[in-house]
Amino acid sequence: LHAQCLQCLRSPRMDLCHVPAAREKGWYLALMAPNVKGPNYAWLDPSRLYCHPQGLQDCVADLLQPFQGDAIDMVAGIDAMGFILGAAAAAVLQKGFLAIRKAGHLCVQTLAQPYTDYSGREKVMEVRTDAISLGLRILLVDQWVETGGTMRAAIQLVERLGGVWPALSPCCAPIGVAAICIEDSEGGRWIQEHYKCAHCVPPHLQPRFNRHQ
Fold first, then answer.
1. In percent, how much of the chain has pLDDT > 90?
2. Where are the membrane-spanning stretches (predicted)?
């Protein structure tokens, strides 16, 4: 990553003006702040990336690049941080955005799916039943895929409602998944093997992200 971007991590304030001369894929990853509060929190906080205008634009562009030419009808984002990238991607594509929520927040008829999140907690997510019609082509976006449990639950919800996805190949279940990072976990590998995916971590940095370094 660019040395000047790494300097941002040492600064007590966000530099929302600096953009490196060579904007290689993933340059904006250095804007993410590391965990300083202990194991009950995620190991990185992308909030500073989202505050940086060029960083956010380049992140969304990298996520959408593999899907150029795909006929996408709607973008769906996962509660809660997936709402940020998902809504930004929908705006770029000029498509609608569907929020997949944690259970208990929607006042309309919903379809529910239980799952285990990255921390091992049992949860339930919901989606309204009237938002996805049969054959609608959907790109699913989240901030991070660690164990894959949350993303697989969202996939199940969309498939149960009849949505389809930009296909990886004709012989596998069609789907499109985008996240800043898809870790090389058992669940992350399963998703990448079965569905067309996009993420922002360059190959030479993937081992460090897998180890949360």
1. 76
2. none
